[in-house]
Amino acid sequence: MLVVGDANPDLVLRGDVRPRFGQVEQLLTGADLVLGGSGSITAAGCARLGLRTAMLAAVGDDVFGRVVRSELGERGVTLLEAESRGTPTGLSVILTPDGGEGRAILTLPGTIPLLRPADISDDLLGRTRHVHVSSLYLQPELADGLAGVFERAHKLGVTTSLDTNWDPSEQWSSIAEILAQTDVFLPNAAELLAITGAPAPEEAARSLGTTVVMKDGERGARAWWDGGECAAAGLAVEVVDTIGAGDSFNAGFLAARLGGRSIEESVRWAAVAGSLSTRAAGGTAAQATPADL
Ligand SMILES: Nc1ncnc2c1ncn2[C@@H]1O[C@H](COP(=O)(O)OP(=O)(O)OP(=O)(O)O)[C@@H](O)[C@H]1O
Ligand SMILES: [Mg+2]
């Protein structure tokens, strides 16, 4: 399968992370530089679950770019690089205070918005069974032509999925044309409501006319498709952090579905894969194996 989207490192800092300005030195209890980006965490999860996985991303010619290349390589993902045009690789700094009352994320988009529809050639699509696109609202140029890309994919017999993730601008510009060419839409509950303007998830999902697999944090997942619906619980695990849980969820769903399992079973795999990923810091360290699922 082919994942198209964001690839960057996450710098995860723990401890006394609430900054006080004026040359105050504060001591941390932990710092990890790990593979981040919704696209690359999804790709790593798919490879770990046994799918032959490539990732198309723009990555810069710098130290953060080298982290992305080596981390994806170690996880068995083939990185296909789009032009980075001298732009630095993106980075997210994730501040995780002791006591765990939510986190703050500082993101440099860097190369993330550089992908263009033309980067996804028919030649590339002709070499895969499925294309998944991540973090659409961070990539406006890609979003503009994605409906056409997915239409080309379908003509070549390639299936499509989309996880928009949150829109930092909160404009939620219409993605109706893209969703009309999307086989599986994988939002979380807040994103589903924001995108549709509907008051409740079921109404929202039914208004879209495609298969919707919705992540719902510790409540697990719900899904609606033509002729059915289901819900699945995650697992009760000792949560270290939830970074990338949604992306590992995507990987669980896609691995099951492309492996020929039913939607219901794929949603169960997804919810369990999401939960298991929360057992360690960062997005990929505790991703599920086929044996786990
Ligand atoms: N606290 C938790 N305990 C157990 N499982 C969890 C927890 N949080 C998330 N999960 C699992 O991970 C899945 C995806 O998580 P979540 O709903 O947070 O996705 P998300 O909002 O898209 O996250 P992100 O985009 O930040 O990775 C859930 O459906 C659930 O199965
Ligand atoms: Mg998400």
* CATH level 1 name: Alpha Beta
CATH topology: UDP-N-acetylmuramoyl-L-alanine:D-glutamate ligase
Number of strand segments:
13
Biggest sheet layout: 9 strands, mixed
H/E element string? EEEHEHEEEHEHEHEHHEEEHH
Ligands in the model, by name, code or SMILES, are: adenosine-5'-triphosphate, magnesium ion
Q: Give the uncertain stretches in residue-range form.
A: none
Helix content range of the residues, please? Answer: 25-40%
Give the number of domains.
1
- Rounded to an integer, what's the Rg over CA atoms? 18 Å
Q: What is the assigned CATH homologous superfamily?
A: Ribokinase
How would you characterize this protein structure?
- The chain has helices spanning 38-48, 63-74, 122-125, 140-155, 176-179, 189-196, 201-208, 245-258, 263-277, and strands at 2-4, 8-15, 28-36, 54-58, 78-82, 91-97, 104-108, 130-134, 159-163, 184-185, 211-215, 221-225, 228-232.
- The chain has 293 residues and is of the alpha/beta class.
- The protein has a single domain (2-113, 128-277), classed as UDP-N-acetylmuramoyl-L-alanine:D-glutamate ligase.
- The strands form 2 sheets. The chain has a 9-stranded mixed beta sheet, sandwiched between helices. A 4-stranded mixed beta sheet has the order 3-2-6-7.
- A hairpin with a 2-residue loop joins strand 12 (221-225) and strand 13.
- Helix 6 (189-196) crosses helix 7 and helix 8 runs antiparallel to helix 9 (263-277).
- It is globular and about 60 Å long.
- The mean pLDDT is 96.
- The structure holds adenosine-5'-triphosphate and magnesium ion.
